[in-house]
Amino acid sequence: MNSTQITLAVISAQQGDEPAFNSLCTYLYNPSFLFAMKLCKQKDLAKDITQEAWTVVAKDIRKLKEPSVFKAWLFRVVYHKFIDVTRKDKYIESFQPDKHEQSIDTTHCNEQSIDLAKLINNLPDSERLSVYLFYLEQMSISDIALITNVAVGTVKSRLHRARAQLVKWLSE
């Protein structure tokens, strides 16, 4: 599904088209679950967060004013559900590479790319989240700002600091 198809499906879902909403779920459930896993590192908790997020999306999709930002809105809902859970638990776990990422077939990766993944995991949480959304989820800077509820300039500076730190670490 490309961005135009997603936008059209959102518009249809906003008008009550259940198959359109189901196609959005089919296409975007897994990315939203992987994002939740990236945040909480617990499969069962990630499933709960994702389910709660999709419940909010189903209930509030008609309120979305700009259908073209649906994916960013969805990720923001997931992010806020994660924040809600961590507030309830009164702790926030640091981001660690999940089992899916650790099972990368190293025969297809060179040593430097594995080192880079380890270095990314050493970045501060806010920078790591920005790097994840920008490079792995291929989201725009404005979408990342929307998801994390910070200014576009803040996202740019987080990405800049992350890149600078990674270059420094790689040159050592």
UniProtKB/TrEMBL annotation:
* Alphabetically ordered keywords of this record: Sigma factor, Transcription, Transcription regulation
Q: Which residues form a coiled coil?
A: none
Which SUPFAM superfamilies does its entry note? Answer: Sigma2 domain of RNA polymerase sigma factors (SSF88946), Sigma3 and sigma4 domains of RNA polymerase sigma factors (SSF88659)
Q: Which residues form the RNA polymerase sigma factor 70 region 4 type domain?
A: 115-166
Give the GO biological process terms.
DNA-templated transcription initiation
Alphabetized CDD domains for the sequence: Sigma70_r4
- Enumerate the GO terms in the molecular function aspect: DNA binding; sigma factor activity
Boundaries of each RNA polymerase sigma-70 region domain copy?
35-89
Q: Which residues cross the membrane?
A: none
A single Pfam family, by name?
Sigma70_r4_2
Top-rank lineage group of the source organism:
Bacteria
> What family does the database annotate?
Belongs to the sigma-70 factor family. ECF subfamily.
What's this protein's name?
RNA polymerase sigma factor
